Amino acid sequence: MRQVIRVVLPLVIVAVACWGTKKLLGSAEVPRGFKRPPTVTRVEGTTLKTTSYQVLIPSQGIVEPRTQSTLIPEVSGKVIELAPALREGGFFDEGEMLLRIDPLDYETQIVVAQRNVAQAEALLQQEKARALQARENWKRLGKAGEPGALASREPQLAEARAQVAAAEAQLVKAERDLERTVIRAPYSGQTLRKSVDVGQVVSNGTVLAELYADDYVEVRLPLRNEDLAFIDLPEAYRDDGPVSDGALPEVILSANLGGTEAQWKGRIVRVAGALESRSKQLFVVAHVDDPYTRRDDGTPPLRIGLFVQATIQGNRLQDVFVIPANALRANDEVVLIDKKSRMQRRVVHPLWVAGGEVVVASQGGGLEEEEVLCTTQIAYPANGAEVLATVDGVAPADPVGNGPGAKPRKPPGA
Length: 414
What we know:
22% of the residues lie in helices and 33% in strands. The protein has three helices and 21 strands. Residues 401-414 have low confidence and may be disordered. It has four domains: 43-50 and 328-391, conserved putative lor/sdh protein from methanococcus maripaludis s2 fold, CATH 2.40.420.20; 59-65 and 215-316, Efflux pump adaptor protein, beta barrel domain (Elongation Factor Tu (Ef-tu), domain 3, Beta Barrel), CATH 2.40.30.170; 74-102 and 181-213, CATH 2.40.50.100; 106-179. The strands form four sheets. It has a six-stranded antiparallel β-barrel with strand order 2-11-14-13-12-15. Strands 17-16-20-1-21 form a five-stranded mixed beta sheet, with no helix packed on it. By secondary structure, the chain is α+β, with helices and mostly antiparallel strands.
């Protein structure tokens, strides 16, 4: 009996376990299937509209004086006086005394020259009297006709006149040298550098100071070849008259001075006669009036040697599309969104790219008015891929669940 139980009992346990397992598996509810909604990329877009665009051409340069001179004396002597304006940074007006050289030697030369003039004039008067006496003697001798040159002392008279002229010229030179002991400013300006001081003996060729005019300054600005189509330059031709200021392009110069951005207004007044030999760029010259005049807005003076950034006003483009630069992809491609909310890649032809903006012509540029431009950067935009676009801030209807006018999703198992 025990032998039978040992054999039968394990079989019964296995059978009950199999029956219980089958029962549990048969009673489990079959899960309902759930279809995942399609993934739609959300993007930003804007409707294209034509507008006008002011071209601003960037450049840079260094401020230079319109005239810079080296002050050199024309006479020798000891410096006895310096004007305060001849110190570095000092301002002076045209004709103002800058430096005085000891005039004593030149005053002495004037006295000597005046004596020489008096002697020469006395000799001239004597020769005139001798010439007149010679003519009287010729007549008293009863000779007919006019006396010859030697008989009338014409060579001696000519020599006396020449001596008077030479003495007078020496007097004029002495007076001019005396005037040159006072060195005056050739124009209104500022002292850049002083090289002499009181008590120093100077001579012809000694550099006294370096000066520059301050009525206006100039900045040479390079332009790229592709910039020339967008600006009307004051080109100079031999037979042309002066160009009016109204036709000269405006330019804004800016620089950071002590952490503050300063700006100065000027105009492009002329164009270089040749391209720069290395870069093959064309240089234009900007002209800024009164760079050292105090301004109400507190703008500091535009100093010589300052490096400035320039913004040149070019032409105003009409009937163009202005799109953000981040919308332009490699190879001048943009992504458009059609009426079915699908992406379409298209090649455009930019006219101008600057300042984070791209300008495309409305005719032949590759874009049409009222088309929707995708402004979201997408790594791999595929033609025909469906998107969910927010156009000009207006959210779209979301076909998969949450946008305005969309049908709500059904929860799983509903």
